[in-house]
Amino acid sequence: MGQLIDRRVPTIDLPVVNLGPYLTDPGSSAALAECEKAWKAMANFGVSVVRDPRAELRHRARFLQLMQCFGAATPELQEDCRRDQTGMAIGWWPPGRETARHWPEVVEGLTEENRPFTAGFDRPPPDRKGRWHHRLWLPEWERNMADGLLATLKGEQIAPPGEQFEGWIEANDLWGRTLLSANITHAEMVALGAGVERDYFTAGIINGGTSLLAPTIVDMSKLNEWELIAGFHYDFDRFAMHGKANFGGLIVWTRDGRRVRIRVPGNCFLCQAGAEAEYMTGGAIWKGFHEVVALPREIEVARTIRSAGGSPIRVGSHCFSQGRSDVMQPHPKWRTEQTLAAYPPILASDRQAYEIRLITGQA
C-alpha cells in the first residue's frame, strides 16, 4: 500500500443534454443550443449527462436480471463463456483480467484531496469486476455492411447455457441498441457543437468500426469498504454511453483535476469521452479519467438486499463505440505542428490493440 487517500468525494450536477430537440429538428435553435451544451461538457469535463426520449428503460430491467443471474452462476459456467482469442470482443472476462495502468505522472499532478483511491497502492491491483462483451450495431447499418459481415456478427454472439438465460441475446440487443443510439446521436451533436462535420466522430464507427455492450459485474456483498472495483483509468474508445448502475461507486476527474461524483437522474445516461475523441480533436476534448470504488453506503445496501433474498450484484451497463479502419489525427480545425506531434496519424485498430495489450499486461 502507498499513501493514504482523502475519502471525501463531492457530488456535482452537470447540465443535462437533451437529445429531443435534435431528433425533432437538427437545425433548430433549440437543437443547436443542446449541441453546444454537449460540446462544452466534453471539452470541459470529458463527461456529460444525456437524456434520450427514445430510450425505453423497461429494456434495462430484463438486462439487469440476466446479468445478475450470470454474476451468481458457478465459476465453471462462467469459464465456459470465455472467448479470450477474440481480444475483448465476445463473451466473459473474469475478475482480475483487467488491470488499470500505472499513472504516477497524472496522480502527482493532482492535489492531495483529489487523488484516486488507486494511488493508495504502489501498483494498481487487478480489477475486482468481471465483464461481458456483446457486439452491437444498429439495424439501419446492415444495408451497408460488407458481404458476409452481418452473418459473421450474428454467428459470433454467444449466450450462457441454461433456461435461466433464455432471451439473453435479445435482451443484450435491446438494451445495447438503446445505449448505442444515444451514443451516436450525442456524438453527432458534439461534432456540430464544435463546428465540424456532423459525422466527424461517427463515420468511422458506422463504417467498419466496432461497438460493444460491455457490462461490468461484481458481487458488492463480498467487497470491503473503499475496495477498488475498477482502478484509475480512461476508456480507449471514441465515446462510451453508460446506463445508470444499480449500485453507485463511479468517481470521475474533471479537466481541472477535481475528483467528483456526477449526479445522474434516473431517466438519463452518462457519456464519457475516450482516447479516440481526444486524439481526433488534438486534445480539445479531454479523455476523462475515472475509477469505481465500493462506497460504504453501497456495501451496506448490498448486504441488506442479500439478507432479504435479493441480488447484491452490481451491474454497470456500458456501450463502447470506436473506429477501426479509419486513420485518426486531429481535424484541420485543431491541426497544428504541436497537435500533430502529440497525436500523429494512426490507424484506429492499431491504437486499440496497443491499449488492450497495456490493460491485459501483454505489453
Q: If you compute it from the alpha carbons, what radius of gyration comes out, rounded to the nearest whole angstrom?
A: 20 Å
**In DSSP terms, counting alpha (H) and pi (I) runs of 4 or more, how many helices?**
12
Shape: globular
Total strands: the figure is 16
Mean pLDDT: 92
CATH homologous superfamily heading: B-lactam Antibiotic, Isopenicillin N Synthase, Chain
Describe this structure in words.
The protein is of the alpha+beta class and 363 residues long. The protein has a single domain, classed as B-lactam Antibiotic, Isopenicillin N Synthase, Chain (Jelly Rolls, Sandwich). Strands 2, 3, 4, 5, 6, 7, 9, 12 and 14 form a 9-stranded mixed β-sheet that branches. It has a 5-stranded mixed β-sheet with strand order 1-11-10-13-8, with no helix packed on it. Strands 15-16 form a two-stranded antiparallel sheet. Helix 2 packs across helix 7 and helix 3 crosses helix 7. 33% of the residues lie in helices and 19% in strands.
